[in-house]
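Hello Y.,

Per our agreement to keep a running log of every chain we model this quarter, I'm adding this entry. I've kept the format consistent with earlier entries: sequence first, then predicted structure.
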Amino acid sequence: MRRIYGAILLTVGIAIVASLAWAQSGASAGPYKVLKTAKVGGVGGFDYISADVEGRRLYIPRNGTMGGLTVFNLDTLEPIGTIDSVKSGGAVVDPRSGHGFSSTKPITMWDAKTLQVIKTIDVDNRPDGIEFDPFNERVWVLSHSAPMAVVIDAKEGTVVGPVMGLDERGTAEQAASDGKGTVYVNVSDKGGVAVVDAKSLKVTHYYDVSAKGVHGSGMAYDAKNHIIFAYMRDPAPVVVILNADNGNIITTLPTGAGVDTVAFNPDTMEAISGEAAGTMTIIKENSPTDFVVEQTLKTMVGAKTIAFDSKTGRVFSMAAEYGPPPAEAPTSGGGRGGRGPMIPGSFSILMVGRQ
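Predicted structure for the entry above:
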């Protein structure tokens, strides 16, 4: 009887393991995979990753005493150089002027070819996110403290001004430009999208999506069909998909936990999000009213920011491995409490693309 019972348990156990394996592979089944993982090492934390598509460079800011803005070849992931004075935030490059900018305080402006610092630019807010608007060659510096957005002329490296009417709406996380004079800003704390005139730098409309989610993070835009993808973290991680012309919500779809930055690929009609939980969610736009989760790709825990290469269709992210937390570390609560030290040499760049 024991043998029969043991055999039954074994059979059930095998079935459970098999079904779990199938479920995991099924969740990851799709057109994308991790094409390359480059362990580039280095000391210090990290924040936003960004791509200079024209210059074929990948920018990764590192924090700490030995950190800096590390630069890699976008095609090979081989190191190119470092700007030592840039140790946090994100980076963007204006392909016309060849000027690069970081979301440090003060803002650092550099030559994208030589990596030499040109000057620093004082701003009143606490820089966090950073976006480049090709419409009028301006850099948008987003913040969680007033003023929520400061705009800089990329050619001259001068402050154009703050965005009027945004401070009243809430903290600014990520923005997306339609390339024609309108910028959409994901309002983090209140769950909404601010519509901003890129010429006057004034909020013209506000789309409240708080009924679907709050604590906004990533923002992507489909210019062809005027579709906004606004990612929310609470009470459950979702992407709110809405009509950019009138703010009407089309649908919501689940994502992985801890979405930070996102991108939209107009060639494949896909919105892609990087997630701290160690996944990447690909949303397929079949039509302006039909959206599905096409794939949930396993990446690395902590790979929450992404950079999109519009030339190759590849997506880049980054993460590191960490040791066990110290014994006195808290076992609950938010933030990064309880995380152990970074394992030396484990910091990695992930290149994701179609199989």
